[in-house]
Design a protein that fits this description.
about 350 residues; Nucleotidyltransferase, domain 5; 5-stranded mixed sheet; two-stranded antiparallel ribbon; about 40% helix
């Protein structure tokens, strides 16, 4: 059974009973506690008071006992390593600097590196909290201790930032502050002939049929330019075209460039978000479905694809200054990177296999 500390009301009762000279065993029975808990409480949280020049007495006072217990708990919390232990701390920092996400780091530790050793297991949320933890004088002092290996190690916390750059800069989104739950709110857009993702065939959801895409827009500087992106769900193949303005006309033009040259089995459908630029979705070519509002996870492949594109073109990029050659270079690199989900084939290889074998899929 998990040990539970005494509460302040319990300490008040214990103090009252001890003043009445009630035995520890009886106090424990009345509180429903083990007698060892009562003995430990009286030993650790009592105070010695002076009764005269050379006379003194040990008493148990509830306010003092609660204060001492709270300070001890805070001290224990502060001395706790922010990433469970020093081994994980070193591993996490090394992998963050290599561009891996907290979820990838935690997952690899548990599934690949040390599957049976709980010493190495950590939750990705703990890593995020470590990255975004507030810097204090105590954590800064901890960083100085970590950097000076000649000094004897202390219980000071290691700092929550790297000595070269803040840790959040190693994350793909590079957000200085964590986004609140629920994300940002957007205006609802009325889309004619909108078909919900709930009506999409299950074969699309299970990634069993080639030719189903997910689409979205990446917005550039001043909301004046951007990219229309499409992600094929089976092969992870990515295509994007320039938007000279964030408008329905430009989105239609970009979609026709992406889908226009593809055979019918390679452009069965696309699932879009609810942006204003998609109101003319019926002109895209493939059948269109729409994700639920505020449910970007329903188009998770496309969201992930957009994050990788943002790695090359961060927020605030003016796409009017980016050449077509640069866009094609990025697209080629994304489609020729081996993927674990594809048994380490590239999206280009898998897409080409399906494209050349229409009857088999």
């Amino acid at each position: 059974m998990k040990h539970k500390k005494l509460t302040f009301p319990e300490r008040k009762l214990l103090s009252l009973w001890k003043k009445e000279n009630i035995a520890n065993k009886e106090c424990a029975r009345r509180l429903g506690r083990n007698i060892k808990t009562i003995r430990r409480e009286l030993k650790r949280n009592s105070i010695r008071v002076s009764l005269g020049r050379r006379d003194w007495k040990v008493i148990y006072e509830p306010l003092h006992a609660q204060s001492v217990a709270d300070k001890r708990k805070q001290k224990a919390w502060e001395s706790k390593h922010p990433l469970k232990n020093r081994d994980i701390y070193t591993y996490v920092l090394d992998n963050l600097r290599e561009g891996r996400s907290p979820e990838q780091i935690a997952g690899r530790l548990k599934s690949i590196e040390h599957p049976n050793d709980h010493h190495w297991h950590i939750c990705h949320e703990t890593i995020y909290q470590f990255i975004y933890r507030e810097k204090t004088d105590r954590t800064k002092a901890g960083q100085r201790e970590e950097m000076d290996l000649r000094k004897k190690k202390t219980n000071l916390l290691v700092c929550v930032t790297d000595h070269e750059r803040p840790l959040w800069e190693y994350l793909r989104r590079k957000q200085k502050k964590r986004r609140k739950r629920g994300g940002r709110k957007v205006h609802r857009v009325r889309i004619p002939d909108r078909v919900s993702i709930q009506d999409r065939p299950q074969a699309v959801q299970r990634r069993k049929q080639f030719g189903h895409w997910e689409g979205d827009s990446i917005v550039g500087l001043g909301h004046k330019s951007g990219l229309h992106t499409e992600y094929e769900r089976v092969s992870s193949f990515t295509r994007f075209e320039r938007l000279n303005s964030i408008s329905s006309e430009e989105a239609v033009t970009a979609a026709k460039k992406i889908f226009g040259h593809l055979p019918a089995h390679a452009r069965r459908s696309t699932t879009l978000d609810n942006g204003l630029e998609h109101v003319r979705h019926s002109e895209f070519g493939p059948k269109t479905y729409f994700a639920d509002p505020y449910s970007s996870w329903q188009r998770g492949g496309n969201e992930n694809c957009n994050l990788w594109i943002r790695y090359y073109f961060p927020k605030g990029t003016d796409f009017s200054t980016i050449t077509d050659e640069e866009l094609k270079d990025v697209e080629w690199e994304l489609n020729n990177r081996p993927r674990k989900r594809l048994n380490f084939k590239t999206p280009q290889e898998v897409f080409t296999e399906h494209l050349n074998n229409p009857r088999g899929h």
